[in-house]
Amino acid sequence: xxERLQKIADMLRSATDIAVCCHTNPDGDAIACAxxxxxxxxxxxxxxxxxxxxxxxxxxxxxxxxEDFVLPGKKVYEAALAVDCSxxxxxxxxxxxxxxxxxRAAIDHHKSHEKFAQIDHVEADAAAxxxxxxxxxxxxxxxxxxxxxxxxxxxVADSGCFQYPSTTERTHDIxxxxxxxxxxxADIIYRVYRKITPSVFALKNRVLSKCRFFDGGSIAVIxxxxxxxxxTGTEPxxxxxxxxxxxxxxxxxxxxAVSEAADKNFxxxxxxxxKADASDIAxxxxxxxxxxxxxCRLSGFYEDVVDxxxxxxxxxx
Length: 317
Fold this sequence. Notes:
- This protein has 12 helices and 11 strands.
- It is of the alpha/beta class and about 325 residues long.
- The strands form 2 sheets. Strands 6-7-8-9-11-10 form a 6-stranded mixed β-sheet. A 5-stranded parallel β-sheet has the order 2-1-3-4-5, with helices on both faces.
- Helix 1 crosses helix 4, helix 4 runs antiparallel to helix 5 and helix 5 runs antiparallel to helix 6.
């Protein structure tokens, strides 16, 4: 481990009561990281609790320990570790609780990370935060089959099943080491990356059939409105991954997924190829993320929101 990870390891070893915090609306990487750390620390006899202000999406409830997540409360923990979180505001309701802990650390892989802990360890070139969690737990001698399954799931979730440009030789090497613990990698990949419910299948078909293309097909926009969720019996958390079908279209350089979160309020997911930086586009609206995948929120009328996104993409292509 490098110096910062060692300091985080020392912090965790010295504490007995630890909160491991996820960002709001957690994805597979964040959930897996929190659960892997908690599982490992409990093996040391620690009281480690995964915390998030949003429920675990249905597709990730197969992960061991997913039912252990708790909502932020007034309890003050001796130590708090934030995982896969680029800034304090992304912790949502867990932010205040995180700050109340005597010892605070953050492990992240977003290039837009804003330091908010006493110890921040960021590796922007990691394919998933779970990669870094592997380095932490392996250095502490705490990897077992359960943590291996969780870390593998996190890597699969954030690397697009080893497809995204962020996937490196190290990513594959860590996956190989995890598989040595006898995990069922094929089942994890199916559950994390391929499995969808009939209702999500209906949502996906519904929104992709209305995908809009601009600028000679170089920009794609898919939209999830409240009516789409109602018609298919789905919710905003079910939109994860659908944007991949838009960015995969030949000729598309920037893809936006515009999801209605409330009246005149939209959650934006951004994917890019080589001609634009997704994080740069998101930062124009107070968001952030990675070079090829990022997100932000925008308020206003739908068409005005789309116009702003198109301009931001055009300015950067």
